[in-house]
Amino acid sequence: MNRLTDKIAFVTGGSRGIGAGIVRRLAAEGADVAFTYTHAAAQAEALVTELASTGRRAMAIRADSGDTVAIRAAVADTVAQFGRIDVLVNNAGLFITGTVDDAGADLAAFDRQLAVNVAGVAATVRAAVPFMEEGGRIISIGSTGGSRAPFPGIADYVATKAAVAAYTRGWARDLGPKGITVNVIQPGNIDTEMNPATSDFAPAQAAGTALGRYGRVEEIAATVAFLASAEASYITGATINVDGGQSA
């Protein structure tokens, strides 16, 4: 299906993992895509080349989502190249753990996680909204941790994801009169380089789902594509778990 023909998408953290899967799916649906990356330059350029070979316009922009100046510049570069933004996907994020009573905790790392996972998302939305028209879509990638804390040491991370879910509900109210929808997808365990289904703890994680397996990047990307389409025009302010029944 080409549900996004002639649409312009902007994806943060799009060079690998879930982000790259989202970029590929949006392009397959007909969108031209700009995406940010921080370190994976070779992967980012390879993805641009791959999409160009399918006839889609693509642009990779080096921008740290924890740097509000850089993310505003990335949005401006996208608009300069493509003219507008129809679909915004906030995917960039960090996963840093540590218990609150750990005297040796790396507090700077926790601050960095907050900057990327919360402040960076807010900055990206604020930068993009002026260039979005009626029918625009804002989709954030959260985590099932936004609704639960499954093990010790995860408080700082899940707090950032809960904040994104709360922002989503508030932004849906703010932007509803403009015809822009805002939703958050909360993935469970997804098979990526950072969380492979072949790791030592993966069997226990998979056993905690109703389906008994890890999810695939393509399954998150498919949900993004649906929410980005006209078919999802009456869905806003929603938190959608894509977790194989982990939260059931």
Automatic annotation (TrEMBL):
Residues 7-193 form the Ketoreductase domain. GO terms for molecular function: oxidoreductase activity. Pfam families: adh_short_C2. Gene3D superfamilies: NAD(P)-binding Rossmann-like Domain. InterPro entries: KR_dom (IPR057326), NAD(P)-bd_dom_sf (IPR036291), SDR_fam (IPR002347). Keywords: Oxidoreductase. Belongs to the short-chain dehydrogenases/reductases (SDR) family. This is Oxidoreductase. It comes from Hymenobacter crusticola.
